[in-house]
Amino acid sequence: PCEPAAYVNLGRLLHDAGDAAGAARVYRDGLARCAPNAALLFNLALVLEDAGDVPGAIAAYRRALDCNPRYADAHFNLARLHEAAGEFRRAVRHLAEYRRLTVR
Hints:
Helices cover 79% and strands 0% of the residues. By secondary structure, it is mainly α. The mean pLDDT is 96.
């Protein structure tokens, strides 16, 4: 009942097949059955973003970072969304964190 990787894999297959609503249901089911999980939240954010739910995507990316503050891709995607919304200070903060985590 609680294997986050299985939910991530099934959700990703559904999302890739064009069933964003089905993917979102799978991710939410995984989150309901398991402890908060950065990968599930990140993938849910991707689905929400693709569906045009930018506030929902931002909230899911933030929750992913609550689970794993070192999730570089979540910082990058938040930077991109904040920049598009004109929230440049937030965008710069997340982009700087992304660079700190990925540049060696």
